[in-house]
Amino acid sequence: MEICLDNAEITESSPTFEEIYIKNRRLMMYTAMNILNNFADAEDCVSEAFLRFSKNFEKYSKLDCPKMTSLLVIIVRNAALDKYRENQKICLSETPDEDVGAVNLDSYPFDSVISAIKDLKDEYRDVLMLRYVYGYNITEISALLKINSDNVYKRIQRARKVLAKNLEEGGGKT
């Protein structure tokens, strides 16, 4: 891809950090503002999200554009939620649920599974996307979302349970 910056031609295969920032900052601000309703806090969250993103820039910069944008939105949403909880001084306690067996998604049409995932709460959808679409392990997800590994594991477990319930209620079996 040919890029012209200040009358100098540069050939690049992946976007620079600055290009990624310019392309995604407005969407990230919009996402943070929807949660926080405070411009200064939203700016802080966007900065925090780009800081988290920069720690593994080499790995993330290889993602295609829609996946990278989706990843950035997930990171900023979680940074904004962290800030919201901090501002509200909400103490969330996680209570364990019963174990969920493996969900056999092969017996459902692909469109039904995707639709059911889209209907999940953000925190469940995010961990499922990071784990099964982007292929991140529990430790990487924990670092991205700034939650401990046990909470990541539990969220995945709960998300799979809700997904299985939604698929069962929606029918859709082949």
Describe the structure.
By secondary structure, this protein is mainly α. It is built from 8 helices and 2 strands; from the N terminus they run ββαααααααα. It has helices at 17-36, 39-55, 57-60, 65-88, 110-118, 122-133, 138-145, 149-169, and strands at residues 2-5, 8-11. Strands 1-2 form a two-stranded antiparallel sheet. β1 (2-5) and β2 form a beta hairpin. The chain starts with a strand and ends in a 5-residue tail after the last helix.
Q: Report the helical percentage.
A: 55-70%
Radius of gyration from the CA trace? 18 Å
Mean pLDDT: 80
Major sheet details: 2 strands, antiparallel
Q: Unreliable stretches, pLDDT < 50, 5 or more residues?
A: 1-11, 90-101
Q: How many DSSP-defined strands?
A: 2
**Strands in their spatial order, largest beta sheet:** 1-2
The name of the CATH architecture of the largest domain is Orthogonal Bundle
Strand content: under 5%
Q: What order do the helices and strands follow?
A: EEHHHHHHHH
Helical segment count: 8
- Distance N to C terminus: 44 Å
What form results from the Cα inertia axes?
globular
SS-based class:
mainly alpha
